[in-house]
Design a protein that fits this description.
Structural class of chain B: mainly beta
CATH class of chain B: Mainly Beta
CATH superfamily of the largest domain in chain A: Metallo-dependent phosphatases
CATH architecture of the largest domain in chain A: 4-Layer Sandwich
Largest interface: A-B, 18 and 20 residues
Strand order of the largest sheet of chain B: 2-1-4-7
Radius of gyration of chain A: 20 Å
Number of domains of chain A: 2
Structural class of chain A: alpha/beta
Order of helices and strands of chain A: HHEHEHEHHEEHEHEEEEE
Strand order of the largest sheet of chain A: 4-5-6-7-9-8
CATH superfamily of chain B: Cupredoxins -  blue copper proteins
Number of strands of chain B: 9
Number of strands of chain A: 11
Number of helices of chain B: 1
CATH topology of chain B: Immunoglobulin-like
Shape of chain A: globular
Oligomer: heterodimer
Helix content of chain B: under 10%
Bound molecules: copper (II) ion
Strand content of chain A: 15-25%
Largest sheet of chain A: 6 strands, mixed
Distance between the termini of chain B: 22 Å
Number of domains of chain B: 1
Shape of chain B: globular
Largest sheet of chain B: 4 strands, mixed
């Protein structure tokens, strides 16, 4: 039995206990069953910071790393409900035509994913030089919401503004979107940059991130998944959890650990070390998110 | 240095102060009020600050005169809570006084192109 089967069995078990607490009321039990199906546990996959188009010594395998990660995702025994890319799909270029070529190539490669529910977000490499124009042509809006099995997902754009701002307009949109939710609703924020000041001297911050956190603070169950820093990192601001993801191009040093934010050098003896993606096992009723980190290539 | 002589010093350097974009921030002691001190010109050009190492003495008051020449850049020195937008054609002045020795990183925080991430520098405060 793999982990996923175990988790879904555990969920069914929990549901059964709940239903038995309402014994003698068949109708209610039936409704709970329907509610459980709607709010059943699921998992999604987060991939981030692919930097398609990067050429350099920090990843001599850059031309094949994404394809290998796609194959690894496709080989997962149980496929995720959906997949999200949290930005820097492409490596930046000053040439707008080349930017579009990279985005088209990226799209072609990830079209091989078996899961067809794929959500894309921009990073500053994709969007900061043209305020997201090329990104929107290829992938649609840069900020949006969706609901999945009772969890409210918000994709926030802190990269289309070259100054790393969410901007007042989007903040007002966020506030209006959340206003209709129960304060206990499970909310997942997907974004590229950290919303808190992780390492401002390395540009690991969002200039008006504090405003977004202020809007989110009244809600009791908020979890943020982001990218940008090319490594796993976990941090709490009050009751809000922030989890950054590894990249698929090169790892970066621990936040502020050295003067320059230079990539961790490629190790030919251990290719793809420090790279990877993650599964997020979600329990909508408990608003819990169990993270499993996976390497680019599984052996 | 008086405000007047600072203005003429800036004029000698060919700097026109931008009225809207001008900042005069003081980090550290309020004694720095009214003193411009040494003027250090810094050019911001994709993808480099020149100079990108600024050496000052502990307690010394200096005025950074920042000028973007080719693209909107940003100047951010987080340890002193100083940041400014650098718009081409404007000179932004930032008055600083560092009260403790050390190396303080600054960076361009307005995404400016292919090597934007390399556009940074260090303020070095000696005792
Ligand atoms: Cu710049």
């Amino acid at each position: 039995m793999d982990r996923r089967n175990f988790l879904s069995l555990a969920a069914v078990g929990g549901g059964a206990v709940f239903v038995s607490g309402l014994s003698g009321c068949a109708n209610l039990g039936g409704m709970d069953k329907a509610a459980n199906a709607a709010n059943a546990n699921f998992y999604f996959v987060q991939l981030s910071d692919i930097h398609w188009g990067y050429k350099g010594p920090d990843n001599p395998d850059a031309a094949v790393t994404l394809g290998k990660a796609v194959a690894t995702v496709n080989a997962l025994a149980d496929q995720p409900d959906f997949i999200v890319f949290t930005g820097d799909l492409t490596h930046t270029t000053d040439d707008g035509l080349e930017r579009r070529r990279r985005m088209a190539e990226f799209k072609r490669i990830v079209a091989a994913l078996k899961v067809k529910d794929v959500r894309f977000m921009p990073g500053e490499h994709d969007a900061s030089l043209d305020r997201g124009a090329a990104f929107m042509e290829h992938f649609g809006p840069t900020h949006y919401t969706f609901d999945h099995r009772g969890v409210h997902f918000v994709a926030l754009d802190n990269v289309s503004d070259p100054g790393a701002k969410i901007g007042d307009e989007q903040l007002a949109w966020l506030e209006a979107d959340l206003a209709r939710l129960d304060k206990a609703a499970p909310i997942v924020v997907l974004t590229h940059r950290p919303l808190f000041d992780l390492a401002p001297k390395w540009d690991w911050a969002t200039r008006d991130g504090a405003k977004a956190l202020q809007i989110l603070t009244p809600f009791q169950n908020v979890t943020v998944f982001y990218g940008h820093i090319h490594q796993e990192h976990h941090h709490m601001t009050g009751h809000i959890a922030h989890h950054s993801s590894k990249s698929l191009i090169f790892p970066l040093p621990a936040p502020g650990s050295q003067e320059k934010r230079t990539p961790v050098p490629w190790d030919a003896a251990m290719p793809y070390r420090g790279l990877g993606f993650r599964e997020v096992d979600t329990d909508p009723r408990k608003a819990t998110y169990a993270i499993t980190e996976l390497p680019v290539v599984r052996t | 240095m008086s405000a007047l002589s600072r203005r003429s010093a800036l004029k000698r350097l060919g700097i026109v102060l931008a009225s809207a974009g001008t900042m005069a921030l003081v980090a550290g002691s309020p004694r720095a009020q009214g003193q411009a001190g040494r003027i250090i010109e810094i050019e911001a050009r994709r993808f480099r600050f020149t100079p990108n190492e600024i050496k000052i003495k502990r307690g010394e008051v200096v005025t950074l005169a920042l000028r973007a020449v080719d693209f909107p850049h940003g100047f951010n020195l987080p340890d002193l809570s100083i940041r400014a937008d650098l718009i081409p054609g404007q000179v932004v002045t930032v008055r600083i006084q560092a009260v403790q020795p050390g190396r303080f990183a600054f960076l361009c925080d307005n995404f400016c192109g292919e090597h934007h991430e390399e556009m940074s520098g260090t303020l070095i405060v000696d005792t």
